Amino acid sequence: MIPNHTAIIMDGNGRWAEKRGLPRIFGHQNGVKAVKNIVEAANKHGIKYLTLFTFSIENWNRPSDEINTLMELLVHTLKDEYDDILKKNIKVNAIGELLSLPGDVKSELDYIIKQTSGNDGMTLTLALSYGGRQEILRAVKEISIKVKKETISLDSFDDSLINDHLYTKDLPDVDLLVRTSGEKRISNFLLWQIAYSELYFSNVHWPDFSEEDFTRAIVEFQNRERRFGKTSKQL
User: 57 near 96, Cβ under 8 Å?
Assistant: First the structure.
C-alpha cells in the first residue's frame, strides 16, 4: 500500500553545506533540487498528498540575512516551477501563519495556489511559518469563541471539531512522516495529524535525499503493520 499522505521534515541543508566548507545558502539552493526530485517521485508513486516542512515558525529566529535569502529562494522556486506544476496537474496548498510572510512571497504563493486550485492530481502542501502547537492553540481559541457565542455547544466538542479548525482541515491524517539528516525529532510539525503516522528517519542530508532514498521509506512503510490500537490477529 502506498501512503496516501506523506509529510517530510526536510532537514540538513545547512550541515550539508558546512560539511563542504560552503555557506549555508548553498545547502538551501541544493535542497530546492531535492524538493523537485522528491515531488516528481511522490507523484510517480501515486502519493495523493505530500506535505513539506518548508519554513517553521521557529525559523524566524535565524539570522536575518539567511531568512531573506530563504524567502527570495522560495519566490524564485515558485516562479521557476510554475509551468511544470501545471503540466503535472499538481494542486499547491499552504499552511501556517501565512500573513507573517513577506509581501512578495505571499503574493506569489497566492497566485500559484489560485492557478492550481482546479488541478486534481497530487496535492502539494507547503508548511510555511508553521508550528504544530501554534496551530492547535489557534484552533482551540477559535472553538472557544464559538462556544462563548453559543455557535457550537460543548456537547459537540470532539476530535472532528478540532480537526475542522486546523490548517489541514481539507487534508487526511499523515500516514508516513519522513525526516532526513539523522535527527530523530518531530520539531513541532503536524503534532495532531501524525497521531498514527509511521515515522521514518534517514541519515541522508536533504540535498542528497534521492528518489531511491524516498522509495526506501515507502518500502519500509509497506512492511510495517499498522494496528491503530488493535492486535495483529484483529487485522
Answer: yes
Specify whether the CB–CB gap between 105 and 129 falls below 8 A: no
How far out from the chain centre does Cα 49 lie? 10
Q: How confident is the model at residue 232 (pLDDT cuts 50, 70, 90)?
A: low
What is the DSSP annotation of 3-61?
-SEEEEE---HHHHHHHTT--HHHHHHHHHHHHHHHHHHHHHHT-SEEEEEEEEGGGGG
Q: Given phi > 0 = left and psi -120 to 50 = alpha, else beta, which region is 80?
A: alpha
Q: What is the pTM of this model?
A: 0.95
Catalytic entry in 4, 37, 43, 59? 59
* Catalytic site residue from 11, 13, 93, 213: 11
With beta carbons less than 8 A apart as the criterion, state whether 215 and 2 touch.
no
**Which H or E run contains 125?**
strand 123-130
pLDDT, tens digit, for every residue of 176-219? Answer: 999 999 999 999 999 999 999 999 999 999 999 999 999 999 99
Q: Is pLDDT above 80 for 65? A: yes
Q: Which residues lie below 8 Å from residue 164, measured CB to CB, with a gap of 6+?
A: none
Cα–Cα distance, 90 to 82 (Å, whole number): 10
How many CB atoms within 10 Å of residue 52?
A: 19
Q: Establish whether 11 is a catalytic residue.
A: yes
